[in-house]
Amino acid sequence: MNTILEIRDLHAGIEGHEILRGIDLTVNAGEVHAIMGLNGSGKSTLAAVLAGREEYEITRGEVIYKGRDLLEMAPEERANEGVFLAFQYPVEIPGVNNTTFLKAAYDAKREYHGQEPLDAASFLKLARERIKSVEMDNEFLKRSVNEGFSGGEKKRFEIFQMAVLEPQLAILDETDSGLDIDALRVVAEGVNKLRSDERAFIVITHYQRLLNYIVPNFVHVLIDGRIARSGGKELALELDERGYDWIKTEAGAEAV
Amino acid sequence: MPNATPAPTLASPDDSRQTARENARDQYLQRVDAHQSTCNDYPAWLQAIRASARARFAEIGFPTTRDEEWKYTDVAPMANLSVVAPQLNGISHQAPTLDSIAAQVFADLRLVFLDGHFAPQLSAIENLPPGVIVADLCDSLQHPAVQQHLAQYATKTEDDAFTALNTAMLGSGAFIYVPANVVLETPLQLLWLHSQELIGHPRALIVAERGAQVTVIETYASSADAGESVYFQNDVTEVVLGENASVDHYRVQLETESALHVGTLQVEAARDANFRSHSLQLGGRVVRHNAYAVMNGENIECTLNGLVLTHGAQHVDNQ
């Protein structure tokens, strides 16, 4: 079993306020782990900490990625080693062309692995081929990063970037929030096309419906900064029907 | 009392405007009071809403062009409109058939209202997914969503005489309810038809619960009978979106070129909701369209598109 990510007793916070209170999680290649939880439970904090956002302070625990200490690695190093984060709120960067932006990331990774940058024509060909997987037009490649994109287009574009960068660990932060059913299907198809034995996914979601399309191997429920319960895909359905209170009660009872 | 205190002998122009405005308001209040209930049963909570709206309208009266929000549109044609006593208890002209209104029908799923009354013979509401409601408001007053949401947004958020007037006349209307996570793929049309000189107050309440999805096409038009008659439609549509709900909304205004129309769209959206509206203003002599959205949470996307095609003396004011 190829373990890509191992999180042990991770505690993290921001401005003195602790948000993650002891996360334990093991993710193997080929697996899709869904993480659900209410607002404020720590879902996005976990994604941010794994990606390397500097505002968060790690107070305890460790994260091992492909055998290396992830927390010691700068964000760009994590990216070059194959960590990818699909943002919850993709930012617009007017003046920076989409293709230029993506090629820079693509080439940085190649250089890190001792390869020559890809020539412009080949990269463009690659981009045009991959953008089809999220049903977006080539015209989007000519625009500035996320400029004027609708919410659904931004989220689909995140998946397109993932398709180009071919990460080993892909973290999707609430990619489904705000999508109508058609955009949701496109996003899910784009993700499913990238599922492989070499790749692992952490899918953070607030709504169960995405998991009908991206069927997870494991579902973890985050409550107050800890994984209160883990299970299979049925757990997501149960959460959607019953809410979170029953888990809180059981978790509270166990803690006593 | 319809007659105000007599004006002073040397009345200034301001005073006569004031009296005319008061007269207009009083005339409409008479219509409100004379308005027979179109629903069989009016629960207390609805009566309270109507009474409160009537009081509000009585207090503020019609706006004038000296009001900032109405500086482009003189509402005198609507305010001073006098029509032949409306036939509220039935359809006085030859009832239109599906064939005769074919040009205004855009969808297989539809609620049709004729002169303010729900017309089941022209409507089509079969094969709805479980829990979805597409019905006359009068038949839906027991539904929890109606009790929770009706008139909770338009009158509360905007202090507008026309909205208050419409709410004071609340009765028959459109109620569309989509339960959590239900996607209604078939577009749904609300068709409001006028067949004669009339003052109408179309009302719609659209509720999309958490994760629900629906497409609604509102259409305002006249049936062949209406001809050159002057009529006034004063409509209010409230749309409530739960978390992560998605609503596509169209307003197609195809009134005749002698018609008067004031329309208000009031949207209330929760986090992650998606609302896209496209308004097409094609007819009417004097038209005012208000579109308001309250975005009550993070990551809400709200698009309000509009297209106006006018010619001649048509006046269309979008706010």
What's the short story on this structure?
Chain A is α/β, with parallel strands linked by helices and 256 residues long. Chain A contains nine helices and twelve strands. Helix content of chain A is 38%, strand content 29%.
Largest sheet of chain A: 6 strands, mixed
Order of helices and strands of chain A: EEEHEEHEEHHEHEHEHEEHH
CA gyration radius of chain A, whole angstroms: 18 Å
- Summarize model confidence as the mean pLDDT of chain B: 89
Task: List how many beta strands of chain A DSSP finds.
Answer: 12
Instruction: Describe the global form of chain A.
Output: globular
Distance between the termini of chain B: 34 Å
Care to count the β-strands of chain B? 15
**Structural class by SSE content of chain A:** alpha/beta
Give the overall form of chain B.
globular
- The amount of beta strand of chain A, in percent, is 25-35%
Structural class of chain B: alpha/beta
Helix share of residues of chain B? 10-25%
Total helical segments of chain B: 6
Strand order of the largest sheet of chain A: 6-9-10-3-11-12
Are there runs of chain B of 5+ residues with pLDDT below 50, and where?
none
Given as residue ranges, the uncertain stretches of chain A (5+ residues, pLDDT < 50) are none
Strand percentage of chain B lies at 25-35%
- Largest interface between protein chains, with number of residues from each side: A-B, 14 and 15 residues
**Oligomer type:** heterodimer
